[in-house]
Amino acid sequence: MEAASTNRNIRKEIHKKLQDNIMRDALSRFAAQYPDARLHAYDNVESIEALRDDLRDMKRYTVDHIATIADTFESSVRERGAEFYRAADGKAVKEYLMKICEENNVHRIVKSKSMATEEIHLNQYLKEKGLHVRETDLGEWMLSVAGQRPSHMVMPAIHLNRQQCAKFFSQELKEDIPSDIPFMIQTARRVLRKEFLSADMGITGANFGIAENGAIGLVTNEGNARLVTTTPRIHVIIIGYEKLIPKIEDAAKILRLLPRNGTCQRMTSYMTMVDGPTPVMYKKDGKWIEEPRKVYVILLDNGRLKAANDPKLKEVYQCVRCASCLNVCPIWTLVGGHVYGHIYSGGIGAILTGLLNGLDDFSKFSDLCIGCRKCVTICPGKIHIPDLIDELRARNIKQNGLPLPEKAVFQNILTNRKIFHALLRIGSIGQKPVQSGKFIRHLPLFFSGMTKDRSLPAIAAEPFRDRTKKLFQKNPDKPVCKVAFFSGCNLDFVFPETGESVVKVLQDLNIEVSYPQEQSCCGKPVLGIGDRETAKKIAQQNIEAFEKSSADIILAACPTCAETLRKTYCELFADDTIWGPRAEAFSRKVHEFTSFVADAYKRAGRLAPTAGTHKITYHDSCHIKRGLGIYKEPRALLEAADGTQFVEMENSDKCCGMAGAFGVKYSEISLPILKEKIDHIKNTGAKTVAVACPACMMQLRGGLDQQAPDIKVKHIADILAEHLH
Amino acid sequence: MEKVCKDWVAEAFDSSLVNACHWKEFAQNAKTASAEILHVQNFTEATATVSEIIHSLKAKTVIAVGGDENPALQNLYKSISSPSINVCTDKFDIAENAPTADLGISTAEFGIGETGSVCVDTYSYEARLVGMLPPVHIVFLNASHIVENITTAFQVISRVFHKGHMGFITGPSRTADIERVLSLGVHGPSRFIIIAIENNPEGRLH
Q: Tens digits of per-residue pLDDT, A414-443?
């Protein structure tokens, strides 16, 4: 088995995967087909949301009562005559299993796929002990022959093509196997059939374990789990605590979602439930005999109980291992599962690795979540995967500290607005962060040397904050309300003209605009790498700055800033009796620009669609669509703008690849994501692509500048300002 | 033959849950899952249908369960057996012949509209063999025994599932592990045939 090295060079691994055209073709085809295929499977249910809520609620209840539910499961299993064993970790599983093998004279074992046994590297151990062990899921079998790890929980061999598979077949069977898929399938059937019929023991995992009656459920398409639970005279079930459910009827809550999300099927070919010993027949001394099968249930902890008692991380119990979070992940669909380095890949994989292996392993690839939250919108258990990753990042920083360059920048510069802004003005900040690569969405200087396929803007000669005095001379005499503008670093130092557009649009609505000069970065960049202490200091400065203003509304034209101010500040100070209420009062005033203006336009009768000829399309930023839930308002504004014809692009809400530090540190991943976005923009025939997020604007401008210079990228504020009379 | 429930109709069914009105959706979803559906009025008519299948498969060995519980089915098994067609219904005979059998026949308790699945009671070892080892699997299903969805299926199941082995079958065995190309019959049968009995006055298959 190819094991994850402790001294990993993840960039090198990523580089290698990006050169693997076979894998990249397979993944991009799959990523393109998956979303519609999944929705099609749900066509005949009334509400996907209701099903997801049911599953989440049931799983939440379970984790909150895990000790008693595990006890009930244990007594149900024992009452029915199966053996039951609680294993603290992989070592305990292995020792217990060897005892069973010795007592029962077991030589040959068939397995049906079980992530829990992958997690504890069971196969390797059993082989070392001289046992004959065979994986029976076709993909898993091929990979075990090839000495590779699965790259996906549901489609383990998705990174391989038929020629590569044929090579592994030929290697294992020592005969020449052509790369004909039906032939390979029939060969696997023939070879593995012998294994099923000659095995003494079957080992399975479980998709669920029912406390009420002690049954476990297995979901497969090939039927291998059904055979593993049929032919051998011994059945060993290795099940993690997170798979337990209270009642028989609760199984339906998993089964209505798992196949649909996992494989876009309404149900897999086989759903098998095993509950206690059932009859098995085998030949003894040439004569068929029938006797009760021996069944052993091993309930595996390996970090799971600790997670169950963790107020934040217990959310992972809502995972049903459908792997759909991988299927929509912009990173996984580009680099595949192997770069995550452990058994569980993708966003949920990072979390599980953090829980099961520890924060050190987690920290090596925790960057590979860009926080786009696409996974959150489809996860059957409604797990907030990026938030849990953020939580683990924060714990990692708390435990292991920040790397030195970040520490210097974050703690000494970002917490001191005057120094920070002075450095921005002279454009001297950033050398170190760029080298270490852990810096910031909002700061443009770090992009030097990154001009291949993407050009990056320079710091504006005059920041927005220096232009406000002149701008505010045009404030209305009798305003309808007062808005304090939070610019964020990008609109302040990179796109001050867009900041000016914001002011003009607001003034046109008869609104008085102010700009508290003490405001600083929103803090998202430091939150992104888990430095919550620095983020708190920055938040306090911003809250104080805006408390001094008499404005009714605090408005941000950067959705990332808006979300941070509105949601994250309250979370940061949730346990703080002084700053908690101040953050609450502050956050209640925070609005995002497009939704605020759309609302005002609607009330003024200015939101009626117009018929124009200038084609314009719109890119949803991750934070505005999935963070703030705003996506209708920007479109309404564009449709109402004079002379425009609004057109949708494909995958309008897929991340543009910027994602703060990510776009810089992993430009090799960011650029292909950007290229796909630009292709979708070009396909619309639009002359303008509108955004509501300055960071997306930076990324898209950079890409279009190089790849389609005739298409303009504009913030909606700029488009609205152009249309003012 | 041992079962999770000896009499699903009496002990598990409830007319508000199990109803022929879900047939159309069941059939549609089952076909989408590559199951074949044949309609017959009764077991007499089913005999001819099964004989045709045996003929087209050139089947020599058939393994079949459910006859002990249902005289009509027992008659069917007797009718299809001939000097050239060995129909095994004894459990040890089934075990002996399963690896080389051409066809397996069993019964399903009910169908599920939402998914096109059939619920099978496979407590006994031989019931599992007939559904998994031969390349073709036929199940008999009472056409009026259909539940609306997975939730209602588990309401039915929870009344009787105290111990044993049971589950759903939805079409034939399949894999897409190589290049995501769908292939049927990897470990289990490549053909899954549902014979729906339309007119079954006693309401039971067994």
A: 788 887 787 777 654 443 333 333 333 334
Q: Would you place residue A456 in the very low, low, confident or very high pLDDT band (cuts 50, 70, 90)?
A: low
Q: Decide if B186 and A229 are in contact by the 8 Å CB cutoff.
A: no
Single out the residue of A480, A449, A453, A431 nearest to residue A600, CA to CA.
Answer: A480
Between CA A386 and CA A651 the distance in angstroms is 20
Closest Cβ opposite residue B125 in set A248, A271, A280? A280
| Nearest beta carbon to residue A252 from set B150, B162, B172 | B150
Check CB contact under 8 Å for A215 and B129: no
CA of A255, closest CA in chain B: separation in Å? 7
For the segment A97-152, what is each residue's pLDDT rounded down to a tens digit? 999 999 999 999 999 978 899 899 999 999 999 999 999 999 999 998 888 888 89
- ipTM of this predicted structure: 0.97
Query: Can you tell me the distance from the alpha carbon of A166 to that of A26, in angstroms, rounded to the nearest whole number?
Result: 17
Residue that the structure tokens 């607005």 belong to: A417
Alpha helix (H) residue ranges in A243-367: 251-255, 258-263, 304-308, 324-327, 332-335, 346-356, 359-365
Q: How many Cα atoms are found within 13 Å in the side-chain-facing hemisphere of A123?
A: 24
The Cα–Cα gap between A705 and A712 comes to 9
- Rounded CA Rg of chain B: 16
Suggest the residue from A266, A282, A297 to mutate for an interface test with chain B (most B CBs closer than 10 A): A266
Nearest CA to A524 among A572, A456, A592, A485? A572
Instruction: Determine contact: B2 vs chain A, CB below 8 A.
Output: yes
Round to whole Å and give the CA distance between A99 and A236. 12
Q: How close is the nearest chain B Cα to the Cα of A259, in Å? A: 10
**What is chain A's alpha carbon radius of gyration, rounded to the nearest angstrom?**
28
pTM: 0.90
Q: Which residues, 6 or more positions from A434, have their beta carbon under 8 angstroms from its beta carbon?
A: A445, A446, A447, A448, A449, A664
Structure tokens at B158: 């929870």
**What does each C-alpha distance from A15 to A19, A335, A451, A672 come to in angstroms?**
7, 9, 18, 12
A156 touches chain B (CB under 8 A): yes
Q: Between chains, do A266 and B165 touch, taking CB under 8 Å as contact? A: no
User: How many CB pairs (< 8 A) connect A and B?
Assistant: 188
**DSSP annotation string for A156-221:** TTTT--HHHHHHHHHHHHTS---S-HHHHHHHHHHHHHHHHHH-SEEEE--SEEETTT--EEEEES
Amino acid type, A696: C
Which domains, and CATH codes, for chain B? 8-174+186-197 (3.40.50.10420)
Given an 8 Å threshold on Cβ–Cβ distance, is B177 in contact with A44?
no
As to burial, measured by CB atoms within 10 angstroms (0-12 exposed, 13-18 middle, 19+ buried), residue B133 is buried
Q: Which of B95, B123, B186 sits opposite A278 (nearest CB)?
A: B123
CA distance A134 to A122: 12
Give CA–CA dist A123/A110, Å, rounded.
Answer: 11
Round to whole Å and give the CA distance between A562 and A225.
Answer: 49
C-alpha closest to that of B165 among A268, A104, A295, A196: A295
pLDDT digits (tens, 9 = 90+) for A670-696: 889 999 999 999 999 999 999 999 999
Mean pLDDT of chain A: 91
Say if the Cβ atoms of B128 and A226 lie within 8 Å: yes
CA angle A665, A671, A672 (to 5 degrees): 130
- Shortest Cα–Cα distance, A530 to chain B (Å): 38
**CB burial of residue A505 (10 Å; 0-12, 13-18, 19+):** buried
Nearest residue on chain A to B124, judged by CA atoms?
A279
Encode A596-658 in three state secondary structure. HHHHHHHHCCCCCCCCCCEEEEECCCHHHHHHCCCCHHHHHHHHHCCCEEECCCCCCCCCCCC
